[in-house]
Amino acid sequence: MEQVFLKRINEFYQWMKENQLNATVITSPANVYYFTNFYSNPHERFMGLFLLENEEPILILPALDVHEAKEKIKITKRIYGYADHEGPEMIIQQYVASSHERALGFEENQVSYKKASWLKSILKIKDTFDIEEGINQLRLTKDSLEINYLKEAAEWADKAVEYGIEAIKPGRSELEVIASIEYKLKQQGIEKMSFDTMVLTGLKSAAPHGKPGKETIQKGDLVLFDLGVKLNGYCSDISRTVAVGNISEKQKEIYSVVQQAQELAIKSVKAGVPIKNIDLAAREFIQKAGYGEYFMHRTGHGLGIEVHEYPSIHEKNEILLKKGMVFTIEPGIYLPEVGGVRIEDDIVATEEDAYVLTSFTKDLIILT
Amino acid sequence: MEQVFLKRINEFYQWMKENQLNATVITSPANVYYFTNFYSNPHERFMGLFLLENEEPILILPALDVHEAKEKIKITKRIYGYADHEGPEMIIQQYVASSHERALGFEENQVSYKKASWLKSILKIKDTFDIEEGINQLRLTKDSLEINYLKEAAEWADKAVEYGIEAIKPGRSELEVIASIEYKLKQQGIEKMSFDTMVLTGLKSAAPHGKPGKETIQKGDLVLFDLGVKLNGYCSDISRTVAVGNISEKQKEIYSVVQQAQELAIKSVKAGVPIKNIDLAAREFIQKAGYGEYFMHRTGHGLGIEVHEYPSIHEKNEILLKKGMVFTIEPGIYLPEVGGVRIEDDIVATEEDAYVLTSFTKDLIILT
Lengths: 368, 368
What we know:
35% helix, Creatine Amidinohydrolase, Chain A, domain 1
């Protein structure tokens, strides 16, 4: 496993070289985890992984976290903690400062203005350089360790949908169904969801910004699940829509259109094709069926340490799919007077096709 | 209710005047909520409440959120949305730009370096000014609307502890107990916890950084709960420790010391006394009992829209308590070989004493 992390960090040193950067600091917990195998959110405290030209990486973090960091991290021995009453300033100056004055690379979108100003001042640096593009490029394709993690998270998402369906009963509220799903997951040791679990019933299933509440499930409803599990730091994200009792022909029709559109989009996946093709495969099918205006979001988003990352699966993305990109495919149709349907799987692009991580059935389930 | 928000924003305009600031932008969702009654986290999208000298506030946000914002916000009619394909730039320049070039105030700790650079560039501004101090000063004392919200959140925290105690059984895991608490809360419509619910049993109760897991409750354990509910945007935070079966004299002793220390700290509360007195009341009692080195954190923290805010209840805080400050009082003793005890209430400072929002019993409960 150590090799995986060494490979990642060496590729980033290479990127630094290509961009003539001799000093960077990585502070976002997700990125630190990606390069080190150590996850910690130090909140208002400082944690930074300093990468300096021709030196081993240096991790500076709160003293409380040093023990765990040393256990988890194999890519460097240079792990230094600071006590709250000292603060990180002296230790940064001791190990990092002075000779690296040219430009400091950091995640300009993640680091606050105040923290950036502070870093510039203690390191006596004038120029800055945004490194997010370099990190995002690396994180864009997943290695086999990551795909294993994502697969495991996806399997729990499948189970979560199963628990949700078991909990459906006319008269039960959306929040009760969510409570039941998360109860069963926690019982089995799953601590974190990727995002707030969504269960929407009836016409609420058609609300793009719907929030689960006390609304109860009724016969004739479509119930939309959108949820995911976070495991080993990696996210899954699945949507399924099921019917309760007899539903109308219209409801069945939109289900069938979304199901076919989603399968077409999955079939379009293969290394080398432009990403927009995936979106268009679903979108054009839905448009031809006459529901184009009711599919008002992109077809999917990248998935990994964060539940939304690159690549974005939208109709204008000309970037070519690469082996190892992981993303969702989740077309939907939302008819205000009828209800909404969304079907979402987690997908890995391979040389030949799509490896689908989620596997809960997509055939229409009608609960009676 | 409108008056409350007008009062808050006018006090902030006053602060701007005193600091000779004629333009600020507030972007953190918590602060926007504090001033407007509208909560939204737009994630990577831009939302900003612009306050310009002698003008009504201007809120610029994603078009999707305009409808809800207009429903909730009474302090201004100047609410403008932008579509994703346009971005917020033009609309900011249209309503905000040009004549406000002196200095822009913003939350330097919240706004990313990239967003700050972007704002400076589109508004053609060179100087910046950190406004967090001004906002924190206002948020430091709570008005009656806030205290009502905090009281309601605290009542649910009391119930959550009750549910947790009901769920305790030898052989049950920490995660199962958490699952049971959150299940019952969600059933009743409570959607959000203030932070990840903590249930630690046995020797884990003594681990300051313990994470709940599959460890099961055994007879003789102390079980430590630390949890809170978020309601109307406001947080509660309670800790209770209970015994399962017969516990040792040592365990009973540390319980009793913490209980007395916590009550002494509460008795020390009253507007006008230095905040450090609260910490010292608990700390000195625990030290005299011989456990000083096992109480290794501050006595408490402010509580409000965020679960950790000002004031910090530590032994060096010389600031004087003011009526309406809300904070936790939560001393603890953590003996590595014995277990840990923490007791925590949510407190409002009044002119005469402490108004305690949480009310679950603090007498030692021994579950048999």
